[in-house]
Amino acid sequence: MKKLYIKTFGCQMNENDAERVYLLLKDNFKPVDNPEEADLILINTCSVREKPEHKLYSEIGRYKELKLRRPEIIIGAMGCVAQQEGERLFERFPYLDLVLGTQGFYRIREALEELIKTGKPVAYTELKEDFKIPLVLPEDNSKKMKPKRVKAYISIMQGCDNFCTYCIVPYVRGREISRPPEEILKEAEELVKKEGVKEITLLGQNVNSYGLKESGYPDFADLLVMLFQIEGLFRIRFTTSHPKDLSEKLMRVIAENPKVCKHIHLPLQAGSNKILKRMNRKYTKEEYLEKVEKLRSLCPEIAITSDIIVGFPGESEEDFLETLDMLEKVRFHEVFSFKYSDRPFTSARKFEDKVSEEIKEARLKKVHEVQARITEEIYGSYVGKEVEVLVEGKSERDPQKLTGRTTTNVVVNFTAPRTGLEGALVKVLITEAGKHSLKGEYKKTLVF
């Protein structure tokens, strides 16, 4: 059997895409961790920001010498940068064999056949509005000597219709397409049954708009209720939620359904209404705060995380101070913050009033400082409390401890009297708070 190596950059959706490629090729390829051993190398790419795109070019460059030594090896790029650049990647990297876009990677077997038949590089980068995400079911690990997975991802939709002025996603992932609910349920059931999965994260650029364009589909809140019925599934997470589409109905499902985790990633991006309007975010900071207040009134234990962009074109010091003020008012558990960078195809790249790199760097540093303090205070509030943790396995930092996450998505590393607790829901007493995780002591097993 031939060997496959995939290097993935970017988001959870990219990780899920890589998993689908493994499954699509499972009859002919087995995964390996070393590209030197591989017959097929795929670089799975992200273009949401400039840095991951540069990582792709660096990664492809690493394989030039390998291709010279082993001309028979097949090297391909897939994902968002592949979609963005298309056949131009062949000009930049003549030793590249495949370019598979965000819909095209599902045709990986066909692409390999065409490459072998013609001996010429193959690019599949067409984006179709009527594209249907193929149903790719997991392997049956119950018949193999493979460890079971505790967590898995399911893409419930692809693409985005929002066209935020800084965002490349609609151009590389296409317009919003929701998967049929019966396929999502089937995939979830198979993951639980065949691989022993206990927690599923539903993925989409804007999960809140799931099913709104398709006739007869449930909305996202109803989809969560349907998934709740799966026996053996302990937890359901989802990302990402657009604030403008966060409904009270969804808030109530989060609050009332014990399997739905008490955590929501709700990107704010900026605290200034002027900048939010320029970003085309379609909400004001006041509307954002109203939704946060409603969410917390229904579900007081909810943890909210967010994204922040600093240095968007036209962002004044006053605008930036409004963003800092929003950090203080909302008190996010965590914030993922980035410096604005121009992306191809987007409207914002044409804006002329750019913010200097020095100012962007200073503002990013300030966001980090403010949020670090807030996170430290929130994490400190866990000390002395018992929390429910889904055990994922051994801690990477300390193999003598186990690790898992709370329903609020906080990492907990803890001591336990025995091993073999992977996949169990346990009670842990929190004894110490760190900057990015908690420490604790095992108390009892709740569900296995």
Automatic annotation (TrEMBL):
PROSITE patterns: MTTASE_N, MTTASE_RADICAL, RADICAL_SAM, TRAM. It is found in: Cytoplasm. GO terms for molecular function: 4 iron, 4 sulfur cluster binding; metal ion binding; tRNA-2-methylthio-N(6)-dimethylallyladenosine(37) synthase activity. One of its GO terms (cellular component) is cytosol. Its cofactor is [4Fe-4S] cluster. Its main location: cytoplasm. Catalyzes the methylthiolation of N6-(dimethylallyl)adenosine (i(6)A), leading to the formation of 2-methylthio-N6-(dimethylallyl)adenosine (ms(2)i(6)A) at position 37 in tRNAs that read codons beginning with uridine. This is tRNA-2-methylthio-N(6)-dimethylallyladenosine synthase. It comes from Caldimicrobium thiodismutans.
